Amino acid sequence: MKSRAYTSAFALFCFVVSSVQSGLAEEKQEPLELPRVEASYHPPYYSTTYEQPENPAEGQLQIGVTYTLWIPEGLKQVRGIIVHQHGCGEGSCKGSVTAAHDLHWQELARRNGCALLGPSFHQVQAQNCRLWCDPRNGSSQVFTDSLKKLAELSGHPEVATAPWCLWGHSGGGFWSSLMQMQYPERIVAIWFQSGTAFGYWTKGEIEAPTIPEAAMQIPMMANPGFKEKGHERFRRAWDGSLAMFKAYRAKGAPIGFAPDPRTGHETGDSRYLAIPFFDACLKLRLPDQVGSALKKVDVEQGWLAPLNSEETPVPFDQYSGDKATAVWLPNQTVALAWLDFVKTGAVEDQTPPPAPTNVKVDSKTGTITWNAGTDFESGLQQFLVQRDGKTIGQVPEKPTNRFGRPLFQNMSYGDTPVLPLLKFQFVDKTAEPGQAHQYEVISVNTAGLKSE
Fold first, then answer.
1. Among the four residues 24, 196, 242, 344, which has the most C-beta atoms within 10 Å?
2. Alpha-carbon span 144 to 136, nearest angstrom
3. pLDDT tens per residue across all 452 residues of the chain
4. Which of these, 169, 298, 262, lies nearest to 221 by C-alpha position?
């Protein structure tokens, strides 16, 4: 995109943590609304905080949590909520504060008329993760009550009752697997990123939930890292994911198994399969009318592939093996992406990103700004800034990501952007005063492809 003028910069909004002074009722009592929240928010971001109670009652969540919701600008009704739930530990909790700001996950939400929710629990290292990752310890009640508050703050009452896509890493997968049993009618699909409670309840280490029939109708994907297999610390993530897949698939559930050949417990490049998986499931399941029931999945319209193989998936009715043990995939697009992923730990992309728009130049400061759509298949890696046909800078100068493909926003161990969040902005410090220049900005996706 070309320009000779400047008007405004791309704005990244941050949330301000708000306070809640008391907790929730005990499980057997009628649930209470969260108390009044002194919330500060900057649309399209909204946040609410539940503070850790000093003297928690039985069944009350004992750890504080902040929920940040992003809603696409101009969206009239929120059709669903994509929940990006972090894992256990103080580091995971702190790293998750940017989850709702992730441009790639926002693009998934935007394409499907959904909101993006980033929870951030206030767990310190000395606290037991089960205090929140087992939703029966109060986190499910705080979650649903917080959605009511976010519905009020955003002016979108449908947020309180919208269905969810649950993405959960480690303890977040543990949480998602139990939320699945409590709210099966609310869940569009689940991505288990190296985590599930299944192996814990089957071994009697936690109370086993009742598995409703509706829970086995939810599309799911188990995604452990291959390096977790046999690992002293993380082997249970692999073992539990595989055992859950086998048990649920034997029940006819639409569940897949996508081992990452490149990673251990870190999230790696799993987003390049998780995002198209959720996209397919949202298109299959979201109702035509907001507020109506989720559509049921016809398992026989999916694709199948042998477990722990690199064989090309085929349509359900063409699969000649045992269908009750095969990996289930929602459509051909996801099936081909799955094949790439289990081979390489990433997904190929041959389509360039959209070109930046609305390029502006402030002639006094040399500040160049632009708007840019996010490449749905691959996300954004960087921007090339050109002056009079020659590249004069890159944003970021050296994109990094020690867990996978270099990204514009960088990425944490748990698949969230790294602070500080970058703006779509570059300052030209070498332009000659008084001379007119033609500027262009080019997007580069994580596959290395450039926009026009």
1. 196
2. 13
3. 433 322 222 233 333 333 222 222 222 323 333 333 334 568 999 999 999 999 999 999 999 999 999 999 999 999 999 999 999 999 999 999 999 999 999 999 999 999 999 999 999 989 999 999 999 999 999 999 999 999 999 999 999 999 999 999 999 999 999 999 999 999 999 999 999 999 999 999 999 999 999 999 999 999 999 999 999 999 999 999 999 999 999 999 999 999 999 999 999 999 999 999 999 999 999 999 999 999 999 999 999 999 999 999 999 999 999 999 999 999 999 999 999 999 999 999 999 999 999 999 998 899 999 999 999 999 999 999 999 999 999 999 999 999 999 999 999 999 999 999 999 999 999 988 778 899 999 999 999 999 98
4. 169
Sorted by sequence, the CB contacts under 8 Å of residue 54 that are 6+ apart come out as none
Report d(CA 159, CA 247) in Å as an integer: 33
* Residue written as token pair 């050296």: 398
| Parallel/antiparallel/unpaired status of strands 65-70 and 114-121 | antiparallel
What is the strand order of the sheet 164-169 is part of? 45-50, 65-70, 114-121, 80-85, 164-169, 187-193, 220-223, 255-257
* Cα–Cα distance for residue pair 121/408, rounded to 1 Å: 26
Which letter does DSSP use for residue 97 in this model? G
In whole angstroms, give the CA distance from residue 132 to residue 122.
10
What would the two tokens of residue 14 be?
């941050």
- The Cα–Cα gap between 383 and 372 comes to 10
